[in-house]
Amino acid sequence: MSKLEMFPLLFVSFAIYAALTLIQGGGGWTEGVITTLPLYSKDAWTIRWGDLFIVGSMALLFIELVRATKTGTASITNHLLSFLLFIAVLLCFILAPGFGNSVFFIFLTMTLLDPMAGFIVTTVSARRDLGVADRSGLLG
Fold first, then answer.
1. Is 137 among the domain residues?
2. 3-state SS assignment for residue 128
3. Beta carbons within 10 angstroms of residue 121's beta carbon
4. Among 123, 9, 134, which Cα is nearest to 71's?
5. Could you tell me if 38 and 47 are in contact, meaning their C-beta atoms sit under 8 angstroms apart?
6. In 10 A of CB 9, how many CB atoms?
7. Is residue 88 pLDDT above 60, yes or no?
8. What is the mean pLDDT of the chain?
9. Minimal CA–CA distance to 96: which of 27, 30, 46, 47?
């Protein structure tokens, strides 16, 4: 696993959110309307920048979860860095102006799920691999 694969991908989302919040002078950019689409039900679906941010972050979370299936030192490092990212995001949510909104809170929960799921998936994968190796007679 390369050093780039140890890097938590949700940091990219965090950097984008922080940059836009600092440039715009607050988290109001999340409320900006991208488009409104009429639906067959006669409802109108309004897509906002915050919605796009969450969908993009969910895609990165999915990639992180797939990457969590690999075991090794690099994977453990990724989980540790992801947990540190969660702490930074939590502090921004609590302390920094422009970060205390629903869009960022949903992102905060994603940064919590990343290391939790990563540790669980890695542990289960390692136990499964150990069990397979044990049954094959390699461990004793």
1. no
2. helix
3. 19
4. 123
5. no
6. 19
7. yes
8. 89
9. 27
**Residue-range definition of the domain harbouring residue 49:** 7-129
Has residue 140 been placed in a domain?
no
**Segment 49-61, tens digit of pLDDT:** 999 999 999 999 9
Q: Could you tell me if residue 17 is inside a domain? A: yes
Tokens in use for 91? 């502090």
User: For residue 106, what pLDDT is reported?
Assistant: 98
Encoded tokens for 51 = 């919605």
Burial of 25 (0-12, 13-18, 19+ CB in 10 A): exposed
The per-residue b/e assignment along 33-55, b for 16 or more CB within 10 angstroms, e otherwise, is eeeeeeeeeeeeeeebbbeebbe
- Rounded to two decimals, the pTM is 0.84
Q: Structurally, how many domains does the chain consist of?
A: 1
